[in-house]
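Lecture notes, unit on binding sites. The following record was shown on slide 14. It pairs a sequence with 3-methylcatechol.
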Amino acid sequence: MTTTEFDAKAADSGAGATAAFLKKQGAVADTPPERVSQLATEVITAVHDVIRRHGVTYAEYDAVKSWLINVGQDGEWPLFLDVWIEHVVEEVANAHHQGNKGTIEGPYYVPDAPVIGARGPLPMREDESGTPLVFSGQVRDLDGNALPGAKVEIWHADANGFYSQYAPGLPEWNLRGTFLADDDGRFEITTVRPAPYQIPTDGSCGKLISAAGWHAWRPAHLHLKVSAPGKDLLTAQLYFPGDAHNDDDIASAVKPELVLDPRPAADGNGETVVYDFVLDPE
Ligand code: MBD
Ligand code: FE
């Protein structure tokens, strides 16, 4: 990002996600023309139906037109799509999974975060605020066999709700890391509890939220990608019990199986939590 001001400006987070997404290779689908035609026709027809059923006016049509133009100009398409659409894509893609439930990736994943090993702290500032959290677990296949060397990538917001590389003033890899499970498939991640996350209110997504009278919150969450050779990549998020927004996440990405059960740490310093991952075959 090019911004230099220290105040994390939320709208920049949305725009940063556009640049990162466009850099990613592979955003190409081999969809045959018949299927493109059918899908596009049905989406367009669904919009026509809404216009007819609700008597949408020219003023409303023009307001939507300028809003759509602004979503692009703000760079907020990844934010919009990941908040309001991705959860259904994930539901369809992973309906056959017998192992862990997954959920959406969201706009702020960055590949190739520093490799920590099987256990250790995430990169963080010396005075990183937030409740210390030690998160350990095991990665297994559907038959219960440990998966040594499984890759556990984790990224999350800090105790103020900001993601490194998408908010200014944070070290590049703050609270992002790659763990490699030990011979027993086990890992242990030392970090801090993230804060609930408010999606940017000062861009086009924020405009939609306030025009509709919605709230802009996601519950506090850890993002993960867990993978091993021959296994389906699991993209997940983990949540904390009692969060005010577990039941009304703006991104509809909470599932009961993804809520952690943290306990006070034995040494009285923060919390520990155990959560295992079971991966489906490819
Ligand atoms: C996030 O941190 C997030 O996880 C999603 C899905 C959308 C916006 C911000
Ligand atoms: Fe997130």
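Take-home: The CA atoms of residues 19 and 75 lie 8 Å apart.
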